[in-house]
Amino acid sequence: LIKNTVGFLSAVVWGLVSMKSPRKFLIVVAFALLSVFLIVLAFSASTGLNGVDSISSYCISCCGMGCFVLLCQQAVEIYPTAITTTGGAFITGGGRVAAVAAPLLVENMKHLTGYYNASYYVAAGLCALGVVLTPLLPRL
Q1: Looking at beta carbons, which pairs linking 131-139 to residues 24 or more positions away fall under 8 Å?
Q2: CA distance 79 to 41
Q3: What is the DSSP letter of 21?
Q4: Considering the entire predicted model, what is its pTM?
Q5: N or C: which end of the chain has fewer CB within 10 A?
Q6: What is the crossing angle of helices 84-113 and 50-78, to 10°?
């Protein structure tokens, strides 16, 4: 219940902040923070730091919600007006496919490496890739 409340409040905060700040910059910040907190979570899981992993988990929830809110706003603005709804649905549908595939990928990575934290490192790398690719989005 607490984590869901934190996620909801972070979505509201990210949405309000995005009304006054450049969205591309906020997406880069959210991806960068998410990448850092994923690395911290993976490191704390491998070293047994119990307090750090729960704090990092809440931070990941906040930054992940920020990425979701900001990317959905940005995706709808990138597409032309006539297909804005289709573009937003395409982005959301891609996220749902990824949510279905994620457990299989995490379990296969655990099977290959012997550790669950390898998936956190891969996710952190993908977030870092998002930091690099976000400035290449079309200018609005």
Answers
A1: 131/28, 131/31, 131/32, 131/35, 134/24, 134/27, 134/28, 134/31, 135/24, 135/28, 137/24, 137/74, 137/78, 138/78
A2: 35
A3: S
A4: 0.78
A5: N
A6: 150
